[in-house]
Amino acid sequence: MPSAHPYRWWGMYEPTVSEVPLRDRDKPVVLSGSALDQLANTCSLQWFLGREVKADAPATAAQGFGNVVHVLADEVASGRTPADLDVLMARLDSVWDALAFDAPWKSAQEKEHARVALERFLQWHVDSNGARGTRTPVASEHGFDVTLEAGPYEVRVRGSMDRVEQDAEGRAYVVDFKTGKQAPSAAEVARHPQLAVYQLAVREGAADEAFGGVRPEPGGAELVQLRQGAAKKNGGDTLPKVQAQEPLSGDWIGDLLATAAGKVLDERFTPTTGQHCTHCAFRASCSARPEGRQVVE
Ligand code: SF4
After folding, report:
1. Residue 140: phi, psi to the nearest 5?
2. What is the pTM of this model?
3. Index of the ligand 1 atom closest to the CA of residue 277
């Protein structure tokens, strides 16, 4: 029973302390919008083990699905591929078999889901009757890198906006395509950190280039859920579910950034249990879970 050897009794060891700080306190803390959510709202230990230690499992087919759909959406937005379902399907066929699925039936099932997602994307892209009718796309896969003040800290946010559009009032509106199976609730969207960071970034100049060098006001942001159909009153299943966030008001996002930056600089990575534990890869080494208690006991 090698696992019973005292050498494996993790709880017998004293905690160790790294002599090298995780981040240089004199430099802005680099964070992404999704990291912010994990650090401030869900579990900072999950962020640390996944993003800093890079102990996450290798990319899954689900991520491959998302990447393929995002790339094709970008090709259509930038005009490299026509907004034509047959052409998109041919492009999908040419790359799909490179994705590794556990079984051929799974691959076929997911490909069908990808087809439906792309159909919804196209409907959304050409839809001029809905809210999009008053907006014009100005950038796709728009990279940005801005430094924001957050309480006593400076936070550098880098990322890419799936789509930037100009609304009827000349403001910048950011669109994020999602291909996951879960969608946040309406209350979560109102305080969605990633969307809010995009809006803050616009305020700090992230979209200037797409607006001819003139700084636009942020006009809101939205999640476009390509795996999920819209409710009947919003156009039905052939259109994606759209979840919009109003233009920012109040300081909540600044507070969230400061909390996240403080945790990283002080290296406070305490496990925080919740819904997010269900899909966490670190349960067996997490002291807050029954499976991982052996780490400290
Ligand atoms: S199991 Fe839950 S509490 Fe533990 S690291 Fe994962 S998300 Fe955090």
Report:
1. -130, 145
2. 0.88
3. 2
